[in-house]
Write a structure and sequence with these properties.
Elements lengths: L4 E4 L16 E4 L4 E3 L4 E5 L2 E4 L4 E6 L2 H4 L3 E3 L4 E3 L8 E6 L5 E3 L5 E9 L29
Antiparallel strand pairs: 1-5, 2-11, 3-10, 4-9, 6-8, 6-11, 7-9
Length: 144
């Protein structure tokens, strides 16, 4: 296991795992807030992390939020290794009831840190482009 340097606005903000082997660490809200149906709110977690170079932090929804129509508005948040601010999560209520978030209690997202491969994008000639059996076949190209 690697260690990630963390700066907390409050000790109660610390990312936690329910189980030692969970991929995602739960993030909590710093504030009490109520998100009404159709509304979206930017929620500060109070957590800043120093992600190692060649790694990225990915902020995902918690599966339990899907049951009540709460989702991260931009699907997945990306935290680059050079970002030093606190993690903020834009939550949207697609449900039919207000969603109540309690400061330092309600888990609002999960953070997963993974290695990435940084690459250069090199333009190639089009005569060498379709070098696989699939070629440019996209959505539905492999059958039903």
């Amino acid at each position: 296991m690697i260690s990630i340097q963390t700066k907390l606005s409050d000790p109660r903000c610390a990312p936690t795992r329910a189980h030692a082997t969970d991929a995602g660490a739960d993030l909590r809200s710093m504030i009490d807030v109520e998100i009404y149906p159709g509304e979206q709110v930017l929620v500060d977690t109070g957590v800043a992390v120093k992600i190692l170079e060649h790694h990225v932090g990915l902020v995902f929804n918690r599966s339990s939020q899907g049951k009540v129509g709460i989702q991260i508005a931009n699907a997945v948040g990306v935290i680059d290794s050079d970002y030093r601010g606190t993690i903020k999560v834009l939550l949207r209520n697609n449900g039919e009831e207000p969603y109540i978030i309690k400061a330092f209690d309600t888990r609002i997202a999960q953070l997963v840190i993974v290695p990435i491969l940084l690459c250069d994008f090199v333009q190639v000639s089009t005569d060498r482009w379709n070098d696989t059996a699939r070629g440019e076949g996209g959505f539905g190209s492999t059958g039903k």
